[in-house]
Design a protein that fits this description.
Elements: H1 2-8, H2 18-29, E1 47-52, E2 55-60, H3 62-70, E3 76-82, E4 85-91, H4 102-119
Antiparallel strand pairs: 1-2, 3-4
Helix pairs in contact: 2-3
Length: about 140
């Protein structure tokens, strides 16, 4: 249902699989723009644990790798529901998007997302299990739910 709704808007969906990553690289090299949704759960080995609301969250490294390969500019995008539609925010990140350390980069991504969520916490999809998985030494935040 969600896929059908997105396709009706005229956007092209690119999956984060190997073939999709090639498509993303091609678009960036051609000077095109695309969005990566913040709720993507990276596959094992495709992310790092980074701070998100004072807890470790497995966070994708794809964005950092795309920037490294193409020198693309990173912008954050946030749509806030308001009466009659949406208010759109597009900003340069407050962190160094050329950060070579994957964990520091992911911390920056997560801090950016947390700042956006704080603007309208009631609009965030809290049911998405952002803290799954956890590092071996960390207890699950979902055990007692």
């Amino acid at each position: 249902l969600l896929r059908e709704a997105r396709l009706k808007s005229g956007v092209e969906l690119i999956l984060g699989e190997r073939q999709g990553v090639r498509a993303m690289l091609k678009k960036l090299k051609q000077g095109e723009v695309f969005m990566v949704l913040s709720d993507q759960n990276p596959a094992k080995g495709s992310g790092v644990f980074a701070n998100f609301f004072h807890r470790p969250a497995y966070t994708m490294v794809l964005i950092q790798r795309l920037i490294e390969k193409t020198n693309a500019e990173l912008l954050s995008f946030f749509a806030k529901r308001v009466e009659g539609g949406f208010e759109i925010f597009i900003e340069k990140p407050a962190f160094n998007s050329n950060e070579p350390d994957p964990t520091l980069f992911a911390n920056g991504l997560n801090e950016t997302l947390a700042d956006q969520i704080k603007q309208a916490p009631e609009q965030f999809e809290w049911s998405y299990r952002r803290f799954r998985p956890q590092p071996d030494h960390e207890p699950s935040v979902y055990e007692n739910l």
